[in-house]
């Protein structure tokens, strides 16, 4: 899998957020947002990305939490609320208007 990309978003004075998508975004398909658990990265969802039937049926978007994977910020302090705001900004930057979580 390891198709990790990054996108810059403005929250906390600037965040480089790590994410993976199963294929280029297709707005005609539903989008499932996958958020890794504490101390893991988007690699947690390797089996979902390798499931060709699932990946063909919907957009799979794995977002990496602040402090995890390739997500970085210069801010020394952040909360899970900050991660939630970042996730919404990443979705907006990628053109994802609605999703399942």
Summary, kept brief:
26% of the residues lie in helices and 24% in strands. By secondary structure, the chain is α+β, with helices and mostly antiparallel strands.
How is this structure best described in words?
The chain has 101 residues and is of the alpha+beta class. It has helices at residues 46-50, 52-57, 80-94, and strands spanning 5-9, 15-21, 31-35, 59-63, 72-73. Strands 1, 2, 3, 4 and 5 form a 5-stranded mixed sheet that branches.
- pLDDT average, as an integer? 92
**Overall helicity:** 25-40%
Q: Can you count the helices? A: 3
Alpha-beta content class: alpha+beta
Low-confidence stretches: none
**Annotation, overall tally of beta strands:** 5
- Rg, alpha carbons: 13 Å
Order of helices and strands: EEEHHEEH
C-alpha termini separation:
20 Å
Relevant terms:
single chain, 101 residues, alpha+beta, 3 helices, 24% strand, five-stranded mixed β-sheet
Which SSEs are present, and which pair or pack?
Layout: E1 5-9, E2 15-21, E3 31-35, H1 46-50, H2 52-57, E4 59-63, E5 72-73, H3 80-94
Parallel strand pairs: 3-4
Antiparallel strand pairs: 1-2, 2-4, 2-5
């Amino acid at each position: 899998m390891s198709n990790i990309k990054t996108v810059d978003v403005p929250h906390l004075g600037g965040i480089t957020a790590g994410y993976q998508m199963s294929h280029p975004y297709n707005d005609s398909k539903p989008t499932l947002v996958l958020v890794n658990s504490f101390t893991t990265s988007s690699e947690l969802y390797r089996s979902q990305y390798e499931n060709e039937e699932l990946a063909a049926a919907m957009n799979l978007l794995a977002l990496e939490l602040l402090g995890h994977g390739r997500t970085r910020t210069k801010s020394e302090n952040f909360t899970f609320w900050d991660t939630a705001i970042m996730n919404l900004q990443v979705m907006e930057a990628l053109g994802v208007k609605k999703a399942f979580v």
